[in-house]
């Protein structure tokens, strides 16, 4: 033995270490001996095997669901998810009335709330005459744009079409808005990839959409959203 403890004391310490009963200085001493004293290390191994054999005749028992859930929560904590309103980036002086309407629609479920995850960029598209208003939310966690019309509509026999582009790029159709006050549209890959300034616009077009791939009817308005990124 390389320690000053008697063999019986060493064996007791090995047993207590194997059962997880040591704390403080005694635990530190046991760990030191485990790393430096072969006899003590063998005694710990013997006790661990002896204790393990005592469970051989016990029937396995499944843990209660609550215990299992608590263990998994401790080992694999779920990242905190931010509510959609904590991820909103407001731009271009979105009117208070429009924001209140948007909050009501999303909170009540009428507007199919954006998923938790990446940032949300919010802006308002307003026509020069003030007769057409749309609150737009760009959801970078799903690369979708959510639009709520708060004033105006397409002329009878026409539909709305949503457009977008990056800085210096031509307008690309995001999708049609045939009816209703709200719509949610998946952005095309080239629009989803835009970083920096994202321009959104809405025009009125023939049923079926623009035949040319560019706006052909009245463009109600556009808005530039700066600082767009997929990261919060």
Count of extended strands = 9
Strand order of the largest sheet: 1-2-3-4-7
| Count of spatially separate domains | 2
* CATH secondary-structure class of the largest domain: Mainly Beta
Alpha carbon gap, first and last residue: 60 Å
The third-level CATH topology of the largest domain is Immunoglobulin-like
| Quaternary state of the chains | single chain
Main sheet record: 5 strands, mixed
State Rg.
Answer: 33 Å
Mean pLDDT: 78
Domain Anti-sigma K factor RskA C-terminal: 113-219
Pfam families: RskA_C
GO biological process, one term: regulation of translation
Protein name: Anti-sigma-K factor RskA
Structural commentary:
By secondary structure, the protein is an alpha+beta fold. 30% of the residues lie in helices and 28% in strands. The chain has two domains: 9-75; 120-228, Immunoglobulins (Immunoglobulin-like, Sandwich). It contains six helices and nine strands; from the N terminus they run ααααβαββββββαββ. Helix 1 (7-18) crosses helix 3 (38-53) and helix 2 crosses helix 3 (38-53).
